[in-house]
């Protein structure tokens, strides 16, 4: 598999503070790269820097070899980068189907309904009338319909019941298996690692672990040793942000 997204010595400064410092990582096409870290580690800031929501002070961000650190967010999207941010942002005044049509022509919608059959049943329903889980399905489907090369997913489980989350993650796995590179930030570390390929653990803006997800599953002490030593001993995987 080829490297789809490559970061080299990336530094991000926010509100006068250095949040990400000299960070390098790679996300491979056809794989899920899991990014873990405690609250304040810099995960969301990193994704926002990659997609152009915020500026990156220095370093390189390459998508399939194309440098895009100084490009506008819209240009990055045209190159094949999709970013699903926290918050399940839908176009509330539009129906489910109209939300999808905002991302892709009608001949692609069958793919969205194949991924999320409940959206087809609710296609004429206003997006603001959908459940939280259905809204997350809609946001994911909208991103996937753009036919991205790399997708950044930031806490897609936020505010959802675990059973809903477990229905979403296999779709993410299928997306990666189709050849798309996925970077997944997820609060449920155990679930993310179970579908992921490679993991990075971020602590105060720096990478403190880089290796196969299986290594963290088989040796959970590595996860704790990487960034939980400074946290409360009672912290569980579901608390990881």
Question: What structural class do you assign from the helix and strand content?
Answer: alpha/beta
Give the strand tally.
10
- The separation of the N and C termini measures 29 Å
Largest sheet: 6 strands, mixed
- Uncertain segments are 229-241
Order of helices and strands: EEEHEEHEHHHHEHEHEEHH
Shape: globular
| Cα Rg | 17 Å
Widest sheet: strand ordering: 6-7-8-3-9-10
Q: Please, how many helices?
A: 10
In terms of quaternary structure, what is this? single chain
Give the percentage of residues in beta strands: 25-35%
Helix content: 25-40%
| Average pLDDT for all residues | 91
How would you concisely characterize the structure shown here?
The protein is of the alpha/beta class and 241 residues long. The chain contains ten helices and ten strands. The model is unreliable at 229-241 (pLDDT under 50).
Explain this structure to me?
By secondary structure, the chain is an alpha/beta fold. Helices cover 35% and strands 27% of the residues. It is built from 10 helices and 10 strands. The strands form 2 sheets. The protein has a 6-stranded mixed beta sheet, with helices on both faces. A 4-stranded antiparallel beta sheet has the order 2-1-4-5, with helices on one face. A hairpin with a 2-residue loop joins strand 9 and strand 10. The chain starts with a strand and ends in a 14-residue tail after the last helix.
């Amino acid at each position: 598999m080829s490297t789809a997204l490559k970061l080299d010595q990336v530094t991000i400064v926010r509100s006068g503070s250095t949040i990400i410092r000299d960070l390098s990582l790679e996300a491979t096409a056809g794989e899920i790269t899991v990014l873990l870290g405690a609250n304040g580690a810099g995960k969301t800031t990193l994704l926002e820097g990659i997609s152009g929501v915020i500026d990156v002070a220095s370093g390189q961000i390459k998508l399939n070899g194309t440098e895009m650190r100084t490009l506008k967010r819209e240009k990055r999207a045209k190159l094949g980068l999709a970013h699903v941010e926290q918050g399940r942002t839908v176009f509330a005044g539009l129906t489910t189907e109209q939300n999808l049509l905002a991302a892709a022509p009608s001949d692609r919608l069958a793919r969205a309904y194949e991924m999320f059959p409940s959206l087809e049943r609710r296609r004429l329903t206003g997006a603001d009338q959908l459940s939280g889980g259905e809204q997350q399905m809609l946001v994911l489907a909208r991103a996937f319909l753009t036919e991205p090369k790399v997708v950044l997913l930031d806490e897609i489980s936020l505010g959802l019941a675990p059973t809903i989350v477990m229905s979403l993650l296999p779709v993410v796995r299928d997306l990666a298996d189709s050849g798309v590179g996925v970077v997944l930030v997820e609060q449920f570390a155990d679930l993310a690692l179970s579908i992921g390929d490679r993991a990075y653990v971020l602590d105060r803006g720096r990478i403190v672990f880089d290796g196969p997800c299986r290594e963290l599953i088989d040796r959970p002490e590595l996860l704790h040793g990487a960034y939980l030593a400074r946290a409360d001993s009672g912290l569980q995987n579901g608390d990881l942000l």
